[in-house]
């Protein structure tokens, strides 16, 4: 209900802007009494039904009603390994934040173990803070969670939990505005370049090169021009044979990136490996060399970046803007690979991508193509998105997503969905089926 001047007017004749209608909130010290009053009495009449509207006093009118936390383990059916570990299942933390009749979805990959423990930490430590917060204050929520967990957080699993919460709040923001996340972040709905990731260690070791070639041929049949394979899991010579087979299979136009998953013990050993792989690639060259060393060996990455022609990429395990600042300051990476599910969510990802842009550093987000497609669509310095076809049984998060809302790849690109928020819908039957129970 509005007055003839377009001014809000309470049906009972109260003035919503009158300061005497306000009192401090006992949860957040903000003036929410008015909000409660509005919600109970004229929500839907004065402000519209579900559309998000900021109150003129800056107080959110959306009430958080629940934070639901799920720990799931989705099995990897084909025996699979990378240079540093065997993969039998992927564990994920899935968080649903409910506000009025909308649900924001956030998630993080937790590795091969630990999602149940982290879910418990979220319920005990983080959820009460989120529930007492204004859901529109996404950066403020992150700051409060970060500060409240300063002694036990700052990095590691706790930041992965903060990431999932931040992602859920952004998804909620998109749903409230009925806008895709990409648009919310200044991008547009478009197809984003992607590469076919894979080349894990599977099958008979003596046929390793042939297995790489066959996988790349399948990637090409699916329309991908660019590819990535693992290295570091065999001898340098054995991996060089796989690199040569990959280069032969990609054709003249394609590019091949290598991913060592922190395999090499020091820069000297990594340098030997990279030079061997460069020789195996010949004139074709390599797209990038990823995570040759421990993420803690920033100086080693910088040494490699100075020494070799192949661009050095890293950052998938790095967390918060501070670790990326260190990588940038030391020139340790030619390509940064932030993962919004790891480093602190979408808010922190955007900070990192924008900072990288200021230093002419491209970003190639790690994992979660269904999320990063939006962020890449809103980032001019995004190089490409990492895509795993679900049939590869590697990135299996999409087992938890309804088939209709899974990411679509076509002709070497992924299609940014035009649905509100992230555009994914959780399959609750799958969530129950893969739930970790103790
Ligand atoms: Mg990687």
Map the helices and strands.
Elements (H helix, E strand, L loop, with lengths): L32 H10 L21 E18 L4 E14 L2 E10 L3 H17 L6 H11 L8 H21 L3 H4 L6 E7 L10 H14 L4 E5 L5 H15 L4 E5 L7 H15 L7 E2 L7 H10 L4 E3 L5 H10 L5 E2 L3 H4 L2 H13 L10 H9 L7 E3 L20 E3 L2 E3 L12 H6 L5
Parallel strand pairs: 4-5, 4-10, 5-6, 6-7, 7-8, 8-9
Antiparallel strand pairs: 1-2, 2-3, 4-12, 11-12
The structure holds magnesium ion.
Magnesium ion binds next to loops.
Q: How would you describe what is shown here?
A:
The protein has 438 residues and is an alpha/beta fold. Strands 4, 5, 6, 7, 8, 9, 10, 11 and 12 form a nine-stranded mixed β-sheet that branches. The protein binds magnesium ion. The site of magnesium ion has 6 residues, from loops.
- CATH fold title of the largest domain: TIM Barrel
How many structural domains does the protein architecture include? Answer: 3
Distance between the termini: 52 Å
Q: What shape does the CA trace take? A: globular
Order of helices and strands: HEEEHHHHEHEHEHEHEHEHHHEEEH
Provide the gyration radius in Å.
24 Å
The major sheet is characterized as: 9 strands, mixed
- Identify every distinct bound molecule in the structure, by name, code or SMILES: magnesium ion
CATH class of the largest domain: Alpha Beta
Q: What would the average pLDDT be, to the nearest integer? A: 89
Structural class: alpha/beta
The percent range for helix content is 25-40%
Number of DSSP strands?
12
Beta fraction of the residues? Answer: 15-25%
């Amino acid at each position: 209900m509005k007055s003839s001047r377009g001014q809000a007017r309470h049906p009972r004749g109260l003035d919503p802007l009158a300061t005497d209608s306000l009192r401090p909130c006992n949860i957040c010290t903000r003036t929410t009494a008015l909000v409660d009053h509005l919600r109970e009495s004229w929500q839907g009449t004065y402000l519209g039904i579900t559309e998000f509207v900021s109150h003129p006093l800056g107080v959110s009118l959306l009430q958080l009603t629940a934070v639901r936390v799920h720990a799931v383990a989705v099995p990897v059916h084909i025996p699979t390994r990378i240079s540093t570990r065997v993969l039998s299942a992927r564990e994920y933390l899935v968080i649903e934040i409910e506000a009025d009749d909308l649900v924001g979805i956030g998630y993080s990959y937790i590795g091969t173990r630990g999602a149940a423990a982290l879910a418990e930490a979220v319920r005990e430590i983080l959820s009460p803070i989120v529930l007492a917060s204004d859901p529109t204050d996404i950066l403020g929520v992150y700051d409060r969670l970060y500060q409240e967990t300063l002694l036990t957080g700052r990095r590691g699993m706790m930041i992965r939990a903060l990431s999932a919460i931040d992602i859920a709040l952004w998804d909620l923001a998109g749903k409230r505005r009925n806008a895709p996340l990409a648009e919310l972040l200044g991008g547009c709905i478009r197809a984003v370049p992607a590469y076919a990731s894979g080349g894990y260690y599977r099958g008979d070791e003596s046929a390793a090169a042939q297995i790489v070639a066959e996988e790349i041929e399948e990637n090409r049949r699916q329309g991908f021009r660019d590819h990535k394979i693992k290295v570091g899991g065999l001898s340098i010579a054995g991996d060089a044979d796989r690199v040569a087979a990959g280069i032969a299979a990609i054709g003249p136009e394609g590019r091949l990136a290598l991913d060592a998953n922190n395999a090499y013990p020091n820069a000297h050993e990594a340098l030997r490996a990279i030079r061997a792989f460069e020789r195996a690639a010949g004139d074709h060259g390599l797209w990038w060399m990823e995570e040759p060393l421990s993420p803690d060996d920033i100086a080693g990455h910088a040494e490699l970046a100075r020494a070799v022609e192949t661009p050095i990429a890293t950052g998938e395990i790095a967390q918060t803007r501070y670790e990326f600042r260190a990588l940038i300051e030391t020139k340790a990476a030619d390509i940064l690979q932030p993962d919004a599910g790891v480093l602190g969510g979408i808010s922190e990802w955007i900070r990192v991508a924008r900072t990288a842009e200021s230093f002419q550093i491209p970003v190639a987000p790690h994992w979660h193509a269904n999320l990063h497609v939006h962020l890449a669509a809103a980032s001019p310095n995004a190089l490409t998105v990492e895509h795993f076809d679900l049939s590869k049984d590697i990135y299996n998060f999409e087992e938890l997503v309804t088939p209709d809302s899974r990411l679509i790849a076509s002709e070497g690109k992924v299609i940014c969905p035009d649905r509100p928020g992230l555009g994914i819908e959780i399959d609750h039957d799958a969530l129950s089926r893969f739930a970790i129970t103790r």
